[in-house]
């Protein structure tokens, strides 16, 4: 399933909630294009921010998603960048505002760098499952200095598995329990590790020196034994 389907799950859930009434009107639309214009949506209680989520994908279309959001969603605003291997590199940004129908404007997403940065991570992306197969080794680009391996659920329910190279924004968000992936908020657990390219060597290791010293000492000890 295309990741854009997540937006439609989100839209359906919001429309369902909206029938229960609310107050702030926001522009509501989704499109696999640069912009969209849509109807006015009266946001349900709790979703008191208007927002525009924009996503760029190196292997697919730019998508836009305008809706009502929770104030806590607006903390996870990106720009978050994920390289999930075969499903490409996606970068998302969320703009939130408080006025009636204020979500016309959105900040542009910086272009995705395609310059290899010396780091590689196992990568895959799966929807409707907590695990993903079809794993590849992704070549991280630009500021994707971290390897993420997480499974969780999108706001509106479907299980999601995400592995790949990510930028610092994603890792910081992950530690708070939620990431902003392809325009959708995903709660989950797993690991997000800073990686370091070792110059002049083909391999790369996690930057876990403090944690791994006893292990390293043990390995060295084993190595010098006959
Ligand atoms: C990027 O776009 C391609 C083509 O539409 C799609 O197959 C892929 O799932 C998208 N990747 C992500 C992570 O959204
Ligand atoms: C979910 O994962 C299980 C176990 O790996 C697999 O058998 C199943 O086909 C997967 N389902 C989907 C929708 O990918
Ligand atoms: C990563 O780069 C290597 C060397 O250029 C290439 O062979 C490999 O296919 C790349 N991996 C991906 C997932 O694009």
UniProtKB/TrEMBL annotation:
It is found in: Secreted. InterPro entries: CNF-like_PLA2_Inhibitor, LY6_UPA_recep-like, Snake_toxin-like_sf. PANTHER family: LY6/PLAUR DOMAIN-CONTAINING PROTEIN 8, LY6_PLAUR DOMAIN CONTAINING 9. Keywords: Disulfide bond, Secreted, Signal. It comes from Podarcis lilfordi (Lilford's wall lizard). This is UPAR/Ly6 domain-containing protein. Residues 24-104, 118-176 form the UPAR/Ly6 domain. The keyword Magnesium does not apply. It comes from the Eukaryota. Residues 1-23 form the signal peptide. The keyword Lyase does not apply. It holds the Pfam family UPAR_LY6. GO terms for cellular component: extracellular region.
């Amino acid at each position: 399933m295309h990741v854009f389907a997540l937006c439609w799950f989100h839209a359906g859930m919001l429309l369902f909630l909206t029938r229960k009434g609310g107050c702030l009107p926001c522009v509501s639309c989704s499109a696999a294009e640069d912009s969209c214009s849509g109807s006015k949506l009266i946001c349900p209680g709790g979703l008191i921010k208007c927002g525009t989520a924009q996503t760029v994908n190196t292997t697919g279309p730019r998508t836009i998603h305008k809706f009502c959001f929770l104030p806590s969603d607006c903390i996870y605003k990106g720009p978050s960048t994920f390289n999930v291997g075969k499903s490409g590199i996606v970068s998302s940004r969320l703009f939130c505002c408080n006025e009636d129908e204020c979500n016309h404007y959105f900040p542009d997403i910086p272009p995705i760098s395609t310059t290899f940065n010396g780091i590689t991570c196992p990568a895959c992306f799966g929807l409707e499952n907590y695990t993903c197969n079809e794993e590849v080794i992704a070549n991280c680009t630009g500021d994707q200095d971290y390897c993420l391996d997480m499974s969780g659920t999108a706001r509106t329910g479907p299980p999601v598995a995400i592995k790949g190279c990510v930028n610092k924004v994603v890792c910081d968000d992950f530690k708070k329990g939620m990431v902003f992936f392809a325009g959708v908020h995903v709660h989950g657990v797993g690991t997000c590790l800073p990686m370091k390219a070792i110059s002049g060597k083909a391999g790369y290791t996690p930057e876990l020196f403090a944690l791994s010293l006893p292990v390293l000492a043990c390995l060295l000890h084993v190595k010098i034994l006959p």
